[in-house]
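so ive been stuck on this for like two days lol. basically i have the seq below and the ligand is zinc ion, smiles is in there too. i just want the complex predicted, nothing fancy, no docking runs or whatever. if the output looks off dont worry ill sanity check it later, just need somthing to start from for the group meeting slides
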Amino acid sequence: MHSDKREDHDPERSAEASARPCPICGKPSVFAMRPFCSKRCADIDLHRWLGGVYAIPVAPEDEPDAGPEGASED
Ligand SMILES: [Zn+2]
């Protein structure tokens, strides 16, 4: 054997040592909530996904453009 692969650097284990910042707020992530720092941020991320699929912020897409023009503009 040439290279003895030892599972010394288990990324899962050394997560605490080199905790990556929470992708939501940038705070150090918590092991239990990885990769987030708290359940709140995990929720935010979750809602981002769900929100992007289900509930899109009210956007004027279908504007009923069937009104008298120049009704009250100056
Ligand atoms: Zn966070």
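Residues 12 and 44 are 23 Å apart (CA to CA). Residues 22, 24-25, 27, 36-38, 41 surround zinc ion (CB under 6 Å).
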